[in-house]
Design brief:
eight-stranded mixed sheet, four-stranded antiparallel sheet, IPNS-like_FE2OG_OXY, 12 helices, 14 strands
């Protein structure tokens, strides 16, 4: 089994009623900008400090692997073979890697982050127009993770939009939607090429993963996160330890670090290179690979000095696809399926409507004693 690393029991200092979500919608941005704020409200305070023994839990020696996208797509046969090998090793050992030379213009990456800032700078009333009511609403913004069920509030505002196979997007601020459409198109192209390489690294044909999971009609989501300065960053979290649904998530940020990934039971600070994508594997790649490639557990820590913005674009199967381990991997390796099938839409709804807790949702489809 993969190392699960340190865990934290997180609870409200005082329970927030689940039947009053409207009262929870004041943004973290507005709270953080309150005059003279020096303490966080008790509902954001973890009773067990997530940063206890932080020095002992941080791995300062390891660095996440790097994949050169240009070698994967335009390299010689030998270079491409090596890139596929590196990609597979990164998925197996880390579930996280940097992608460089990916071809997405740096100017577009900078502009989309500025657009994200512009959205979060809208008034509370303007953002309320896009609040959404259900976890599968195509446009939804809010705070924490799921304020109606979270047992601790997280120091984070978010915007989540379904952008493929149908493109939805907020109408404000002006020009943001057009930028997002181009950005999502470019990141989807990068993701699909990475998935072809991953499919080959598993010993399959390049197109097998896409065909089996119907990625051509797969769901792509635009998730923008805002983590304002926190007056007591040692007492709160931006996002708790969790893995992502889907296959791959591409992430960029505004130069402010705060992402930590779990590796061999410790946390590794991720310091992204300029004009690179941070990529992590999701639960459904773990299922498809029958556990060979593990979805990565990661979290967002806070600072009291600057606002961190991150933009994630996860890609998954089509919503109606029942995701199971690839038959070829089971038959060729004479292994039993380690996961039961579940429709991607049902998995997504279950994860998004539950409290975020490591791999708790993936564990529901894991076959006991399968390894």
């Amino acid at each position: 089994m993969a190392a699960t690393g340190p865990t934290f029991n997180i609870h409200y200092s005082s329970q927030v009623p689940h039947d009053q979500p409207a009262k929870l919608m004041t943004s973290i941005k507005k709270l953080a900008e309150s005059p003279g704020i020096t303490f966080i409200p008790p509902t954001y305070t973890c009773t067990n400090n997530p940063h206890d023994d932080l020095a002992a839990l941080i791995d300062t020696e390891s660095t996440i692997p790097t994949v050169d996208f240009s070698l994967l797509t335009f390299g010689t046969p030998q270079q491409r073979s090596q890139a596929i090998h590196d990609l597979g090793k990164a998925c197996q050992d880390w579930g996280f890697f940097l992608v460089i030379n990916h071809g997405v213009p740096e100017s577009l990456m900078k502009a989309i982050l500025e657009g994200v800032q512009g959205f979060f700078d809208l008034t509370e009333e303007e953002k309320h127009e896009f609040e959404g009511k259900h976890v599968l609403d195509p446009i939804r913004c809010g705070t924490s993770f799921n304020a109606s069920v979270d047992e601790v509030m997280f120091w984070r505002d978010f915007l989540k939009v379904f952008v493929y196979p149908e493109f939805h997007f907020p109408t404000k601020p002006a020009g943001f939607s057009e930028l997002a459409l181009e950005y999502c198109k470019r990141t989807r192209q990068v993701t699909r090429e990475l998935l072809k390489g991953i499919s080959e690294s598993l010993g399959l044909e390049a197109s097998d993963l896409e065909k089996f999971l119907n990625v051509e009609s797969g769901l792509q989501i635009f998730i923008a996160n805002l983590y304002p300065p926190c007056p007591q960053p040692e007492l709160a979290l931006g996002m708790p330890p969790h893995s992502d649904h889907g296959l791959l998530t591409l992430l960029i940020q505004n130069g402010i670090n705060g992402l930590q990934v779990q590796h061999k039971g410790k946390w590794v600070n991720v310091n992204a290179m300029p004009n690179s994508f941070l990529v992590n594997t999701g639960d459904h790649l773990e299922i498809f690979s029958n556990g060979k490639y593990r979805s990565n557990i990661h979290r967002a820590v806070l600072t009291n000095k600057a606002t961190r913005i991150s933009l994630a674009t996860p890609t998954g199967p089509s919503l109606e696809t029942v995701v199971t381990p690839a038959p070829e991997l089971i038959n060729n390796e004479n292994r039993k399926p380690a996961y039961i099938g579940m429709k991607y839409k049902d998995y997504l709804e279950l994860q998004q409507s539950s409290m975020l807790d490591g791999k708790s949702i993936l564990d529901r489809v894991r076959v006991s004693n399968s390894e």
